[in-house]
Amino acid sequence: MVESQSYQYVKLVDGNYQIVTEELPQPGAGEVLIRIAYSTINPFDKAVFSYLKTPRIGSDGSGTIEAVGDGVSAELVGKKVAFLGDAWGQYKLANAHSLIILDDNQDLTKAANACVNPLTALAQLHLAKKHGATAVIITAATSQLAKQFSRLSQQEGIEVINIVRRDDAVEQLKNENGAKYALNQTSETFLADLAALNKELKPTFLIDYISGDIVGKIFATMPQKSHILVVGNQTGSTLNLNSGDILFNDKTISGFMLHRFLISIPAEERQKILQRVSDDLRDGGKIFGSTIVKEIPLANYLEGLNEQTQVATDGKILINCQ
Ligand SMILES: NC(=O)c1ccc[n+]([C@@H]2O[C@H](COP(=O)([O-])OP(=O)(O)OC[C@H]3O[C@@H](n4cnc5c(N)ncnc54)[C@H](OP(=O)(O)O)[C@@H]3O)[C@@H](O)[C@H]2O)c1
């Protein structure tokens, strides 16, 4: 039983988000009450803020379990966790099986971005392997998610061709993220360079975060039976594909949403994925650790949302939720 207490969170009220104070809820059957320590700001939060308008906002967070409902082991009380959703607030309720249970010594600032991107990176790997890809092309390769996917793929022996939009980003990925292949999409020789690389590596899986004409041109350089996984749309433009390339070369396309993926896989596989992230963070976050560029209080979430795009190449903005 949770003692009567009020808490603050960011809530959708009449179509706009604002910080409200409400009575702390009791965890129901199968639920836990989490005292949220930190959250981060992801591109998905901008989409929620602008048009998805879910009742609560904040895609990723870390905290400590303070109470459990019926049917949940009391041993979970005091455990550090990372979780998806409803993170911009001081407390939240969650299903006990949806959490990443962290090591007791885990620094919660380093686990505040442990779900959205790490779980998506692992899902992308799962889908690329299922497609039979031995090499993958990825756009917006300076994004935190692409960097995690690239590190993961190096560990799994899958080659990654990183596509960026600046020369300095090519060097940065090679020097700081161990990238073997990185190309600047704004270079005059980009498509010819990519076609030459494709002959050698035969990438059959394209992970796209940017959309637009350039993605269709990249796809057209890829072998028959290649697949595009649409994961994001950083440019806000229409995806322009050559229908002949799809018809005659047997190419395919699908959209990815993390929550859909997580419910599509068996519970044991989901647990393995959650555990893999927890283990990596415990060991220092070599794959899934993300760089924090600054910390802001919950009250300044709007300022953080506006600043997110400017700092995205370097890392994440951390929200201190207490
Ligand atoms: N569908 C899902 O379930 C799911 C889950 C997780 C993430 N995502 C998506 O995955 C993407 C990456 O997420 P993240 O958190 O890693 O993002 P992030 O760290 O904020 O990085 C965003 C990246 O987008 C690049 N970018 C922005 N505008 C661009 C443009 N006009 N052309 C080319 N590149 C551009 C930036 O590159 P520069 O360095 O060149 O500025 C930056 O590296 C986002 O689109 C996000 O919405 C989707």
UniProtKB/TrEMBL annotation:
InterPro entries: ADH-like_N, ER, GroES-like_sf, NAD(P)-bd_dom_sf
Keywords: NADP, Oxidoreductase
Presence of the UniProt keyword RNA-binding in the record: no
UniProt GO MF annotations: NADPH binding; oxidoreductase activity, acting on NAD(P)H
Signal peptide: none
Entry coiled-coil feature ranges: none
Pfam families, per the entry: ADH_N (PF08240)
Keyword NADP (UniProt): yes
SUPFAM superfamilies, per the entry: GroES-like, NAD(P)-binding Rossmann-fold domains
Domain Enoyl reductase (ER): 15-319
PANTHER family cross-referenced by the UniProt entry: QUINONE OXIDOREDUCTASE PIG3 (PTHR48106:SF18), QUINONE OXIDOREDUCTASE PIG3-RELATED (PTHR48106)
Protein's name in the database: Zinc-binding dehydrogenase family protein
